[in-house]
Amino acid sequence: VELPTETYTPVEVSRALGSLSTEHKTLLVKIARAYAWKTSYSHEDLIQEALTRVLEGKRTWPRQLPVVVFLRGVMRSIASDWTVEGRDDTVDVDEIGYVNHAAAARIDMQKMLVLFDDDPIAQKIFAAMLEGVKGEELRQLSGLAPKDYETKRTKMRRRLEKWSP
Amino acid sequence: VVAVNNKRPRSVDAKDKRDEALNLADFKIDDILSMPGDRLLVEIGEDFGDPARLAAEFDVIAFALLSGRHDSAVDPGQAGATSVAQPAGADVGSTRAPLAITPAAPWSFRWAALAAAKRLGMPSRSHIFLGVFATLLLVCVLAPGIYSLLFQRSLDLVSPPSQNDLPALARGPTSMVPPPASVPAAAGAADPSLAAAPVSPRPPAPRVPLPAGQSGIESAVRGRLEAADSLTKDRQATSPHASATPLAPSSQTAAALQRSAVPSVTVPQEQHSPFVEPRVAETGGFVVQFSEWRSEAQAQSTFQELKSKYAILKGREPLVRRLDEGQRGVFYALQVGPFESPDEAEQLCARLKAAGGVCSVSRN
Whole-angstrom Cα distance, residue A54 to residue A10? Predict the structure, then answer.
């Protein structure tokens, strides 16, 4: 069976991006807000940069990838680069005190941990999540059943969104 | 707990901090993506006072980017459809370039002017157009006869597709995976392979009707378009050349055909048009389009899959339209229809979307 080309053409990309559903657009903005946090740019900058790269063909869109999954990957990549490019990778820490971006980020995280003072399981999930534990591994670490874990995760997200978009 | 002491490493990798932020973002996004779409919108409504608030933000950004591209499907009407007032202090200090068009409320004069500018193919950024639009509106109100004349003329000029646009114009979405164009695009200009498309009488340019529940001006425009279609049919019925055009063109393209293609209709249609209608009786009206494939068999089998997945499609037969796009090859568009009214097609597409499907509506 002859399949279409592996990636979408610029015309197809442009047309698809111009006709996303309200749910898709909402998801993409939420994703952008999450990834743009702690960068020097706004979530709108992130969306614009992602769309520009896709429209210009710098990022090709494999046909098997849903739009949200694809653009999530693009935005994550850009957001990651922004921080690394924008400042030195290594920040000195000395006895006087470490007034640097990394420290500022960590203080925020501590404040966020306080959000879950009344919920030890949430704190456990949060701490593990910051270390990079994801998905099923994170759920198992929490000791919660899948449905309970999803409920917990949503509650945590809603609280976290008070501190970060 | 972070403590400042001399036992800490001499350096802290900023990337680690960034990874923390990314991990946090991933955590939140994973949760957001697991939510049903309607629940997400309810949540947005609670947070922002309007479920369409974030979608409107996206529209603004996407429209600014896509409006400069001829293959865009976005128009001011679409951007306006989900636009809301910006909250105070939101996104101040953005480093983005100024947007070309800020979506206005759909009932506003500015929105109407921008929509008209887009439809007429005029530079929508020009503030001069607003003045011209206001003047024309005043003249039209004062002189109904002039209004009719101007409007009919405008319909002839609405989004005139170039010959190179033809294949892409008639093509809808290309896969079930990404969301297809619910609003058709003036596509093809950015596709160099389409530049060599043969000159031929114009096929119908797909046009999605304006959504129901919009402002009065949209209803008026829709009414005028339908009236123009009726006029086109009347013209075809009375024209000696009408029978040489098997496709039922939309109002604007039909009018263009009436003016420009009359002397050349003696050339067989098959040699020029990239479209081969599988069923002549299926022309006219509106269709719901799903995807495009390299083979007809694949389009047919896809429809069977969709049919088994969505009960609403039971009893319906697929309409597979062959699209010859020159160097890019032949595609087969999978559609259902035709429907007499755009509302019927929109209704089916909306129900499919509600069930998780992907589709778009276009003129047949």
Answer: 8
Look up residue A34 and give its two tokens: 């999450």
Strands B330-339 and B318-324: antiparallel
Q: b or e along A2-22 (b: 16 or more beta carbons within 10 Å of the residue's beta carbon)?
A: eebeeebbbbbbbbbbbbbeb
The phi, psi pair for B241, rounded to 5°, reads -100, 0
Whether residue A34 and residue B24 make contact (CB cut-off 8 A), yes or no, is yes
Rounded Cα gap, residues B347 and B352, in angstroms:
9
Q: How far apart are the first and last CA of chain A?
A: 45
pLDDT in tens, chain A (165 residues): 555 568 888 888 888 888 889 899 999 999 999 998 878 888 999 999 999 999 988 999 998 889 999 999 999 999 888 765 444 444 444 333 334 444 544 556 777 788 888 899 999 998 888 888 888 999 999 999 999 999 999 999 998 887 766
DSSP percent split of chain B into helix, strand, coil, nearest 5: 50, 10, 40
Q: What is the pLDDT of residues B9-29, one digit of tens each?
A: 334 455 555 677 888 888 889
Phi, psi of B13, rounded to the nearest 5 degrees: -75, 120
Q: Which residue do the tokens 């306080």 mark?
A: A114
In angstroms, the CA B206 to CA B337 distance is 14
**Residue in B47, B26, B17 with CA at minimum distance from that of residue A158:** B47
Q: Which of residues 56-115 of A touch B (CB under 8 A)?
A: 61, 63-68, 70, 72, 76, 79-80, 83-84, 87-95, 97-98, 100-103, 105-107, 109-110
Which residues of A, range 20-39, sit inside 8 Å of B by Cβ? 20-31, 34-35, 37-38
Mutate to test the interface with A, among B27, B86, B92 (most CBs of A within 10 A): B27
Here the tokens at position B79 are 């951007």
Alpha carbon B322 to its chain's center: 21
- Euclidean distance between CA atoms A85 and B273, whole angstroms: 52
- Both tokens of residue B151? 């409007």
